[in-house]
Write a structure and sequence with these properties.
Layout: E1 3-6, H1 19-27, E2 30-33, H2 36-45, E3 52-54, H3 61-73, E4 76-80, H4 93-102, E5 106-108, H5 114-122, E6 129-134, H6 139-151, E7 155-160, H7 165-176, E8 181-186, E9 194-199, H8 200-210, E10 216-220, H9 225-233, H10 235-244
Parallel strand pairs: 1-4, 1-5, 2-3, 2-4, 6-7
Antiparallel strand pairs: 7-10, 8-9, 8-10
Helix pairs in contact: 3-4, 6-7, 7-8
The protein binds S-adenosylmethionine.
Residues 11-12, 81, 83-85, 88-90, 113-115, 159-160, 185-190, 215-217 line the site of S-adenosylmethionine (SAM).
Length: 246
């Protein structure tokens, strides 16, 4: 019986690759990659020449079966995504489940992850947090998720494209109030890494003025929906929010 290794890769800075990750990728019979072109760059950098094949949610079921049969037959496979932890908003869950069902060992290596990296430097409550993955695109779902954030005490962590950060901040102001603490963590581990900390209003104004580029993690402080709905009922506050929305 083989084994499936889940191998994190850097989220920007190649020095964040671990020694163990390099060794496992070297020793595996096959590397399963979300995007083989992306992974090939990493493998070239670390002089790893293990055979590489693609694995993602659209991988044809015949190929999935073939890969699974090889695992059962004794091959050792290492799964990577384009960046960070495989399975964390990246492919891999169905294969992990299949392996566990039939007793193929699944071994996860620790390593780079954008959400946790942002959380520990954010200054927000890191004891309790909820990771939501990508912020939903539909207005109704956004509203629902933000209401949940407001009702819970935990820090909320979202992934979001820089093109939609402004909309996320606007939605946050509408549902949770302009004073809600937010942290934008962008380009983590890269040359232009930056943490922007402040109220949702401060950050909206800053983003509207300077723009925002690069990959982003957004953290929103939990708690206090009641306080923000009281605020929302206040007429002058309502006008203020309407101005911000323009
Ligand atoms: N598997 C990855 C992980 O463990 O963090 C996440 C993959 S998800 C498809 C990609 C999203 O993660 C980006 O859109 C961004 O929100 C976040 N992300 C990835 N790298 C980042 C970085 N260097 N700085 C900030 N956010 C990052």
């Amino acid at each position: 019986r083989g084994a499936l290794y889940l191998v994190p890769t850097p989220i920007g800075n190649l020095e964040d690759m671990t020694f163990r990750a390099v060794r496992i990728l070297q020793e595996a019979d096959m590397i399963l990659a979300e995007d083989t072109r992306q992974t090939l760059k990493l493998l070239t950098h670390f002089e790893i020449d293990t055979p590489l094949t693609s694995y993602h949610e659209h991988t044809h079921s015949d190929k999935q079966e073939q890969l699974f049969a090889s695992l059962e037959a004794g091959e050792v496979m290492a799964m990577v995504s384009d960046a960070g932890m495989p399975l964390i908003n990246d492919p891999g869950h169905p294969l992990v489940k299949r392996c566990l069902e039939v007793g193929v060992p699944v071994i996860a290596l620790p390593g780079a992850n954008a959400a946790l990296t942002a959380l520990i430097a954010s200054g927000m409550d890191q004891e309790r947090f909820t990771y939501y993955g990508f912020f939903p695109r539909q207005t109704k779902m956004r509203q629902e998720i933000l209401e949940q954030v407001g009702m819970r005490e935990e820090t909320a962590i979202f992934y979001e494209s820089p093109y939609r950060i402004k909309d996320l901040l606007k939605a946050t102001i509408q549902v949770l109030g302009a004073n809600r603490s937010v942290v934008l963590a962008r380009e983590l581990t890269k040359r232009f890494e930056e943490y922007m900390r402040g109220s949702a209003e401060d950050l909206l104004l800053a983003v509207a003025e300077q723009g925002i580029k690069g990959e982003c993690v957004v953290l929103i402080a939990g708690g206090g929906l009641e306080a923000s709905s009281q605020l929302a009922a206040d007429l002058s506050y309502k006008e203020h929010v309407e101005q911000l929305m323009q």
